[in-house]
Design brief:
With 230 residues, the protein is mainly α. 88% of the residues lie in helices and 0% in strands. The longest helix is centred in the last third of the chain and has 44 residues, at 183-226.
Length: 230
């Protein structure tokens, strides 16, 4: 009887959690579908700026070298080299930087203070990152092959956050577009949308961090060594 009762309770618990889990996954995609034009526009803007920055780095190699030198002087290069012996720790650090410094501090928090601020900040960052990605030697081109997928994955996460920042600013300034009466209500609805979009964004950042760490250590670096470019 006890075992039967526990089984029934477990079954009920699972059944009640399933709708919650489905909501967790369905709501962000519903938001994207409802705002499909804005989502497409943000994709074109962010990836377009990365490509423009990349092209500028190729045409003006000194720009790319300046960004690499900045990373060297800031200690980023030394930090990366110190983590190459532990892929999981490397992935954790990447996730921390991407989710906290970029996602939270550069996109989410500024947008909660000034409408669209995070979107503008990251638009500029996308251009700079594109310049930084431009290879300055053969080793850089080889490493870029597996790293290109990292860019696609991680920037899709940022696209979702920028979309959330855009919707927050839109609902905040024009609350009637979301069916709200006051700016405060529009702001709260915008924060809610940003929160929902942060869920798939975080999932993508986790996937991207793991892939970036393992692809760099086990794919890019061995390729560079085999070709004698290190």
């Amino acid at each position: 009887m006890v075992w039967s009762g526990l089984c029934r309770r477990s079954a009920v618990s699972i059944l009640t959690r399933e709708p919650q889990l489905m909501t967790l996954f369905r709501t962000p995609f519903r938001i994207i579908r409802t705002n499909s034009r804005a989502y497409l526009g943000v994709n074109i803007l962010i990836y377009g700026l990365v490509i423009i920055g990349f092209a500028l780095g190729l045409v003006f190699p000194d720009l790319a070298r300046a960004q690499v030198d900045r990373l060297d002087e800031g200690g980023t290069t030394d930090l990366v080299l110190s983590l190459l012996s532990n892929a999981w720790l490397f992935a954790l650090v990447i996730l921390g930087v991407n989710s906290l410094r970029v996602g939270l501090l550069s996109i989410i928090l500024p947008s909660m203070i000034i409408p669209f601020a995070g979107a503008f900040f990251f638009a500029y960052s996308s251009l700079i990152i594109g310049i930084t990605l431009a290879p300055t030697d053969q080793a850089g081109w080889v490493a870029l092959i597996p790293h290109s997928l990292t860019v696609v994955i991680e920037f899709q996460a940022y696209v979702l956050l920028v979309l959330g920042a855009y919707l927050l600013g839109k609902f905040w300034l024009r609350p009637r577009t979301i069916g709200a009466v006051t700016h405060r209500q529009g702001y709260l609805r915008g924060v809610q949308h940003l929160g929902w979009l942060s869920i798939p964004a975080l999932a993508l950042l986790i996937i991207g961090a793991i892939y970036e760490a393992f692809s760099l250590i086990y794919i890019a670096l061995p390729w560079v060594r085999e070709l004698g470019l290190s």
